[in-house]
């Protein structure tokens, strides 16, 4: 399951466009849809990314794979998986808050997003300042 860069960009653009159109219709009160329905394009896109990531990670479990080769690559994929799950948690909490399913404070809704941003900054700093010593 390999996609070219153009296909990935087109898929990202399409799902973003669908999400933004649905969001604008909801905010203009033209569509009385549930907030969970508005986020369906985001969740479909995230599901596609999660399936591709899990397939790539599971491919490393086949017989004959040397775990010493690419252990950094596996750590990066694990971080991507955690990042996707944090984004999913944020979207679910945000939809529940907007739909008034919960009376959770808005600060609590944003905790997964803040954790994701802190993790991204740590990874960025690690990639910039890490000097490999052999």
UniProtKB/TrEMBL annotation:
Pfam families for this protein: Tmemb_185A
Positions of transmembrane segments: 36-58, 78-100, 106-129
Alphabetic keyword roster: Membrane, Transmembrane, Transmembrane helix
PANTHER family the record matches: FAM11A, B PROTEIN, TRANSMEMBRANE PROTEIN 60
Protein name per Swiss-Prot or TrEMBL: TMM60 protein
Organism from which the protein derives: Sapayoa aenigma (broad-billed sapayoa)
Gene this chain is encoded by: Tmem60
């Amino acid at each position: 399951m390999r996609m070219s860069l153009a296909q990935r960009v087109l898929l990202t653009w399409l799902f973003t466009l669908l999400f933004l159109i649905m969001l604008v219709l909801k905010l203009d009160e033209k569509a009385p849809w549930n907030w969970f329905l508005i986020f369906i394009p985001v969740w479909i896109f995230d599901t596609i990314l999660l399936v591709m990531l899990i397939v790539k990670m599971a491919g490393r479990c086949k017989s004959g794979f040397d775990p010493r080769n690419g252990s950094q690559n596996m750590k990066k994929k694990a971080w991507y998986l955690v990042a996707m799950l944090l984004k999913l948690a944020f979207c679910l909490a945000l939809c529940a808050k907007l739909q008034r399913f919960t009376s959770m404070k808005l600060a609590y809704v944003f905790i997964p997003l803040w954790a994701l941003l802190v993790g991204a900054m740590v990874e960025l700093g690690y990639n910039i300042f890490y000097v490999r010593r052999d």
